[in-house]
Design goal:
CATH superfamily of the largest domain: HUPs
Largest sheet: 5 strands, parallel
Number of domains: 2
Order of helices and strands: EEEHEHHEHEEHEEHEHEEEHHEHHHH
Strand content: 15-25%
Number of helices: 13
CATH architecture of the largest domain: 3-Layer(aba) Sandwich
Oligomer: single chain
CATH topology of the largest domain: Rossmann fold
Distance between the termini: 31 Å
Shape: globular
Length: about 400
């Protein structure tokens, strides 16, 4: 599966700062200081509907992580998956009378278009669950051979008790885990499981549903968590720098994925930092496909909204905050974009070197994009009120905003 084209990231003078980022597993800020190549895995979409603002906010957060790393003169190895076979996708295809594979390809193509328009940096590997199956099957077999997995009526489950570090990502108690498991694709009430929250690794073939050869596992399809583990281990290995996604993935997805990988390898941790973006609401409720309260990036683009304004609307909120999308949020972003573009279109302006450092410092401080935007706003006000004599300043600001915030002026 192919990703989307990369937009050019302008080179800036000087060098950025190491990123201080909030790690869910430890509950505090850590300094991410990767080697020459920073490694990041971000969980991708289940493509049964178009990209909504909640998705865009999550991918914007991890785009900023990459831009901070690039500004420190590191390379970035970014991997993202696509869950192109799963129950929600099959249910939507059945509801609409569509072929599930065609639905997945159509919505994945639209996602690529949205990411390109928003200037999100693409992953080096963009891997679908279906194409990852040949690498998933041996991992499930190995977990079974290690005694970390067991069979139940043809399905194969992971035993969470097999990982001594289970629970160290989310730090939830058993009751909370059981509740979230039921809400987020698990089956805690199924009789015969060793632990109610044990997740499925391999689902035996069901009539009328797609299935693949699973070797000694029989025909079936992979569970959700082992998909990401197989892809991450194959391309990044253990101990990569950041595991990213929305806060709704803390449990069960990232907790289970970490335990799968740790049981497989005997190493800890799977990722040095677990980083999670907040949720976006609409009309008082979290934006979600199941509720249908969505604002689609593609629809905004069709309505003529500049993608740079959409991106500024996302950047106006701290990535870890839960916030609400409103017409005013978008209008404020459109207004800001107009001011910024007018300011950098002048032949000269106030000196900009200090502004670049302010943006760098804000982003290095747990991706404080609102502080970065406020710094650019202050420079813009100076430009509007009194101008300046530095003929290179507008170009410096334009390149810095592009390189560090992903906004083309």
């Amino acid at each position: 599966m192919h990703a989307w084209p990369a937009s050019e990231v302008p080179a800036l003078p000087g060098q950025g700062r190491d990123l201080r980022i909030h790690d869910t597993a430890t509950g505090g800020l850590i300094t991410s200081a990767p080697g020459p190549v920073a490694r990041i895995y971000v969980c991708g979409i289940t493509p049964y509907d178009a990209t909504h603002i909640g998705h865009a906010a999550t991918y914007n957060a991890f785009d900023l992580v990459q831009r901070v790393w690039l500004d420190t003169k590191r390379q970035v190895h970014y991997v993202q998956n696509v869950t192109d076979v799963d129950d929600p996708l099959l249910e939507r295809a059945d509801r609409d009378g569509l072929d599930w594979a065609e639905l997945a390809e159509r919505e994945t193509a639209l996602f690529r278009e949205d990411m390109t328009a928003l200037r999100m940096l693409p992953p080096r590997q963009y891997i679908g669950a279906v194409e990852a199956i040949p690498g998933i099957v041996p991992l499930v077999e190995r977990l079974r051979d290690l005694g970390a997995a067991y069979e139940l009526d043809g399905d194969v489950y992971f035993s969470v008790e097999s990982d001594p570090h289970f629970g160290q990502v989310s730090h939830l108690d058993a009751a909370a885990m059981r509740l979230l498991s039921a809400e987020r694709g698990g089956d805690p009430d199924r009789p015969g499981k060793k632990n109610p929250v044990d997740p499925m690794l391999w689902m035996a073939a069901r009539e009328g549903e797609p299935s693949w050869d699973g070797g000694s596992l029989g025909r079936g399809r992979p569970g959700w968590h082992i998909e990401c583990v197989a892809i991450a281990l194959d391309h990044l290995g253990m101990g990569f720098d950041v595991q990213g996604g929305g806060s709704d993935l803390v449990f069960p997805h990232h907790e289970m994925g970490a335990s799968h990988a740790q049981a497989l390898t005997g190493e800890f941790p799977m990722a040095k930092a677990y980083v999670h973006a907040g949720m976006v609401a609409l009309h008082g409720e979290k934006m979600s496909k199941s509720k249908g309260n969505l604002v689609f990036v593609s629809q905004l683009r069709r309505d003529g909204v500049d993608p740079a304004a959409i991106r500024l609307a996302l950047l106006a909120h701290h990535y870890r905050a839960d916030w609400e999308w409103t017409d005013q949020v978008l209008q404020d972003a459109v207004t800001r974009l107009g001011h910024w573009r007018a300011a950098v279109s002048r032949p000269d302006g106030p000196p900009a070197e200090a502004l670049v450092e302010e943006i760098r410092e804000a982003l290095a401080n747990d991706l404080d994009a609102p502080a970065a935007l406020a710094a650019v706003d202050r420079w813009t006000v100076l430009q509007e009120e009194s101008g300046g004599t530095d003929t290179g300043a507008p170009g410096v600001v334009s390149r810095a905003v592009d390189a560090l915030l992903g906004v083309a002026l």
